[in-house]
Amino acid sequence: HRQGRLPEAEAHYRHALRVYQEGSHLGGEGYILGKLGLLEMLSGASEAGLARVKRGETLLRDLNNLQGLAELLCSLAHAEHLAHHADAAGAALREAQQIADDLNVAPDASLARHIAEVQAILTETPS
Q: Quick one: what percent of the chain has pLDDT higher than 90?
């Protein structure tokens, strides 16, 4: 979705969600719910998208999947930003950073880059 091809990304995420659900892979399902929800928000479905991201958050918290949760919290921060919930966006990103610190994530790791990317987004004015 970062390349602006939202319909293709949505089809990919929906397929991945079906695969994870059919295989009872809750960690993958939670992660994809976060990605799909953010994509829905970027496409204008704010309430449904934010609710989907939060369902993914609940799944990953219940599984105690910290790496996945930190990634999802980045999506949640971005989604909350799009919904004009600045405090919630900041809190989600701070929690993602705290988890990354606790896991000793390397600065060049994907999660660290994702946190930095979302931090830059949060400094922008939402449209």
A: 69
